[in-house]
Amino acid sequence: MADPEIYATVAYDAEIPTEFHWPGKMVVRRAGRLNAISFLTKNFLAFVLNENRAVEWMMNQLILPLPEPLQVQQGQSIAVQFGYSAGGPLEHLQQAVHVGEQAMQLSVRHAA
Asked: Which residues contact 49 (CB under 8 A, 6 or more apart)?
């Protein structure tokens, strides 16, 4: 329903983060019922510089259902917020996903 957003980049030649947090907004591309958030992981295995391309490996998609579905309209901006510890239980991520008004309220509280 929305374009993918990059929430983290991990480079193996730098310190690997143990915490990931993302407050952001996503623009709805198609009206409907938003009932889950999808997480994608893309690995870059190699960069072929002389061909200006990368060898990529897409891992399995993680889909987390939202506690309350939202009706959304095309072009609507939806606030999304989540955070998790690397290697932590999926339940912690599930509890940390906030979408819509709930995410906007959390962002305002954290900014104050």
From this structure: none
Q: Judge whether 82 lies within some domain.
A: yes
pLDDT, tens digit, 9 for 90 and up, residues 45-60: 999 999 999 999 988 8
**This prediction's pTM:** 0.76
Domain span at 28: 19-35+67-111
Residue 60 lies in a domain: no
Residue 53 placed within a domain: no
11 within a domain of the structure (yes/no): no
CA distance 19 to 52: 32
54 forms beta bridges with: 47
The Cα 111–Cα 106 span in angstroms is: 9
With CA atoms as reference, report the closest residue to 22 among 112, 99, 74, 75: 99
Count: domains in the chain: 1
